[in-house]
Amino acid sequence: MENEPRDNLRASKAVLAANAFLILAKLVVAILTGSIAAIAVLIDSLMDMVGALFLYFGVRKGSEPPDVNHLYGHKKYETISSIAQISLIAIAAFLIAAEALNRFSHPRALDITLADLAIMAVAVAVDIWVVSYLKKHANLASPAIQASVGNYSSDILQNSLVLVGLFATGAGFHIADPIAALIVAFLMFRVVYWVGKGAFGELTDIGPPKEMLGRYALALRKVRGVKSFHKLRARIVGGETLIDVHVQLWPGLSISRAHAICASVKHTLIEKFPEVREVLVHPEPYSGPHKRGPKFGS
Question: In the CATH scheme, what is the homologous superfamily, with its name and number, of domain 4-203?
Fold first, then answer.
């Protein structure tokens, strides 16, 4: 866990460098061919560059420790970074779709060469490398990193479609170019939906699935000294889960013993579930098996 912020910063720098290369490669193809599909992925990469900057600064800010104004840390900066990235992707997708539809009405004959196809093939290889690098060296629980992985995974298919579209256009099937561009725009909107769903969920304090709450409950009930519990709550921040719960203990326990049991609950949940970063435990005296408030929620 200690190396994750550093790893994410290193990964964000690698994304910036790779994206600079992709922009140059796609710019060359767009200028040489005039392909709307090539222009589409060029615009996507330009937005990706701005998004990569959001990624870098979001991860950098999110890795800062708590301070007097942010007592819970800065993890939500990563979530804001994720939303900034997908906002740019959505704008680019809309512009691409509009121009692609226009090309259906006004098709263009394009001059496609082997060099153009080779450059796009290299772009596909670079996207594959970026996704592989992020999955291997970055903390995938980070919403900012998730946004980048989703984006560049989509880019692999997008650039492959452009490569096929250029080849088909060069063979005389001119409508293949705007078709490829429309599919690229659709894939971009798909990334916006799935990544945005998680990012907005974190900003609104979405909790883990009910089955996970059940697993947390089962684990804490097994801690020696815990008789029952209620008001178990959890929320996700920066890809990590924060839990608070009221546990019921035998009346008459010393403060030190009650504290030790609460500490055991915390350590058990953190050790058993890697996504759990913090657990706040409130002890109460056990007064029988009758219901003492909801088991889940407040």
Answer: Cation efflux protein transmembrane domain (1.20.1510.10)
